[in-house]
Design the sequence.
C-alpha cells in the first residue's frame, strides 16, 4: 500500500548540484526514520544519510558538509540536496523508510526504486 517514489537523479558535472526527492504515498499512520543509500557498480550499498520524524540527521563522513537531508512531514517526502558533487558520488541512490499503515503494526521497511546520479565531466 505504501510506495516510495524517487525523482531528481541525472548527469551533473563535478562541483554541481542535484536535489533528490522521495515521496511516500498511500495511507500512512506513521512514517519513521527515512534514509538515503547509494550503490556504485561493483560495490556494496552504503548508508548515506538518515533523518528522523523529528528532524535529527546523520551523514556518512564523505558527504558531510556537502549533502543535506530534509523532510516535509506534511507531504511524507524526504529530500537530499547534494552540492559540490564529486565523481565518487556517482551511484544509484535509494530511498529507504520505515512506516506503519496501522497503529498496531510493527515497523515495516520500504525501498524506493533507485535513481541514477552520475557525476562526470
Sequence:
Amino acid at each position: 500500500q505504501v510506495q516510495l517514489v524517487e525523482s531528481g537523479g541525472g548527469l551533473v558535472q563535478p562541483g554541481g548540484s542535484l536535489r533528490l526527492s522521495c515521496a511516500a504515498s498511500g495511507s500512512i499512520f506513521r512514517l519513521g526514520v527515512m534514509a538515503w543509500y547509494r550503490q556504485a557498480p561493483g560495490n556494496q550499498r552504503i548508508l548515506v544519510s538518515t533523518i528522523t520524524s523529528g528532524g535529527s540527521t546523520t551523514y556518512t563522513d564523505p558527504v558531510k558538509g556537502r549533502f543535506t537531508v530534509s523532510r516535509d512531514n506534511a507531504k511524507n517526502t524526504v529530500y537530499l540536496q547534494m552540492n559540490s558533487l564529486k565523481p565518487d558520488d556517482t551511484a544509484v541512490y535509494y530511498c529507504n523508510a520505515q512506516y506503519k499503515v496501522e497503529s498496531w503494526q510493527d515497523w515495516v521497511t520500504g525501498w524506493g526504486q533507485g535513481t541514477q546520479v552520475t557525476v562526470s565531466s
